[in-house]
Amino acid sequence: MAVDIETTSFEMIPLDRIISRLSVRRISASGVARLQESMKWAGFLENYPLTVVPLENGGYELIDGNHRYEAAQGLGLVSVPCVIKTELTEAELYQIAMQSNNAAETVVPSTLVTHAEFIWARLAEEDDQGKKKYTQSDVGKMLGWERVSVKNYAALQKICQRAWEIIGTTFERTVPDDNESGVPVNGTTVPPFTEGLLRSILDLVPEQQTELVTELVTNPNFSKGKFKTLSENYKARNQMKDHALEQVGVLGEPYTTNLADEIDSGGYDADWKQESHPKLQKLIASLRDEWQQKNSIQFLPPDGPGDFYEQVKNVPDGSIDLILTDPPFNIATDREFNLEGRNNRSQDFGDWDKHDALTEFRSLFFAWGTEWKRILRDQGSGYVFCSYRYVSYLHDALVEAGLNVKGMITWYKTNPGPQIEHVTFRNSCEHILFFIKGKSGHTFNWQGENEMHDHISAPICLGKERLVDAKGEVLHPTQKPVSILKHLMQISSNRGDIVFDGFAGVGSTGAAAKDLKRKFVGIEKDATYFAAMQRRLS
User: Among candidates 62, 45, 39, 51, which has minimal Cα distance to 8?
Assistant: First the structure.
């Protein structure tokens, strides 16, 4: 840049009249110390004046000579020689400052750090309207560089603060002597960092950047080639983690930590390609299998009984593939029948199956349907056992809740209980409503014509399947046979799907899910039944 001679003058100016400074790089303590040593015996050399511009208040702004200013001030000098420049734009001031720095390399050299931080600062500056003051091309003109070089240096701002401090300290400690041999006065080697080398770590995480920078500075056996190789390896490992975490991240700890540790071991570096990575996929599959083995059964809450209406709120929206449940029928009474030569038969199943007001009980159906619709994924399915007394009410409530009732299945009990009163027909059938979320597209694994009737013939629980208490008494009066649950589960779900039962009883749905390699989420209010389910599924 050429500056008109009429805009330049020279005079001695008191240091206290220099009231502001244009900073374009860090102050080097070692550089200031070197200058002070020189000034002690030679004084402030007039052939190296400060460069200032006058301010409206009578003071001056320093645009070149920050290190000389610091040295003079530290030695208590009163006035120093200055070149006064006028009629310059702010961009021209920066240009003069940088060109002057470049001309004083022997005392305090301009370094990679100097240029990078100057570029960052200029590109971050905004005008009064909040718009960027300078483009990369503008900054290039200040430095005498091509725009692409400014762009490359600007990218170094991706380096984390800790790593950048190490890089800056390395340059600070390696000031070349007057013969410009490149050997610092403290005897250390020239900093190994270049802009091109540092760009190889821009995509790494802060810990990786810091590790590589530290190794290159402190380890004499750590070459630039190894720096680049490890940078590429770390970049590939980060890509592997991103790819793998998309598939296993939902598993949470410790699976994500194990995944990261495995990848960081380096054992998958040679395997990694964006389009094909068989070893990594095998690792992902093994972690999934491990998770499913440990987490295929989930209770809400995890450590005890819970109420459906409270705990179902903890089931995420759209997370369930299949609902398979046997809610209360409201058929229990206080009656007990005395049978000659046989055990008495009680109709009192427990308070869980008693509702005094029919309208109150029916109002629960819509609450069931609303929650089932919320937790089902799109095209998810559901089966709910119900009494003939309420099947129409439940059907209408499910439709009102937004579910699509596809039909009703009748379970014919081949060994029903006896009809004690002999005043009506023997109760040998139970009903199951089948519904889906959406109009179509639900899982429906056709089992063949002979298996796909809307009626099922199967006995009630017998023998070892029927759970009993410590006295040998039947534990749950309406325990469902696993064979029926498996049949429905095989039709409307696939291996690995999540099955939900909000009225889980003694865990028959969970047992069927476990046998068929499905995951199970269950809620049970009764403490005795919950304990039995927990033992059964553990």
Answer: 51
Kindly state the greatest CA–CA separation across the chain.
Answer: 128
Computed from CA positions of residues 178, 183, 188, 193, in that sequence, does the dihedral angle turn out positive or negative?
A: positive
Q: What is the 3-state secondary structure (H, E, C) of 120-136?
A: HHHHHCECCCCCECCCH
Number of domains in the chain: 3
pLDDT tens readout for residues 472-516 = 888 888 899 999 999 999 999 998 899 999 999 999 999 999 999
Task: Compute the average pLDDT of residues 383-396.
Answer: 93
pLDDT bracket for residue 356 (50, 70, 90): low
Count of positions (residues) in the chain: 538
Residue 372 sits in the same domain as residue 358: yes
Note whether 129 and 43 are same-domain residues. yes
CATH at 49? 3.90.1530.10
Residue 299: phi and psi, rounded to 5, are -110, 145
- Say if CB 50 and CB 65 are below 8 A apart: yes
Question: In the listed set 244, 265, 294, which residue is the last one of a domain according to the structure?
Answer: 294
Task: Judge whether 84 and 11 are in contact, CB under 8 Å.
Answer: yes
Q: Are residues 274 and 396 in the same domain?
A: no
Rounded to the nearest integer, the mean pLDDT of the chain is 85
**For residue 300, which of 19, 63, 478, 520 has the smallest C-alpha distance?**
520
What is d(CA 53, CA 18) in angstroms, rounded to the nearest whole number? 9
Q: Which of 174, 202, 220 is the last residue of a domain?
A: 220
Are residues 110 and 246 part of one domain?
no
Q: Angle at the Cα of 533 (from 531 to 538), degrees rounded to 5?
A: 100
Query: Do 14 and 58 share a structural domain?
Result: yes
Q: Are both 145 and 16 inside the same structural domain?
A: yes
Of 236, 322, 371, 367, nearest to 497 (Cα)?
A: 322
pLDDT tens per residue, range 30-74: 778 878 887 887 788 777 888 899 998 889 999 888 888 999 999
141 and 281 co-located in one domain:
no
Pair 202, 75 in one domain: yes
Domain that holds residue 38: 5-220
Helix (H/G/I), strand (E/B), else coil: 314: helix
Predicted TM-score (pTM) of the model is: 0.49
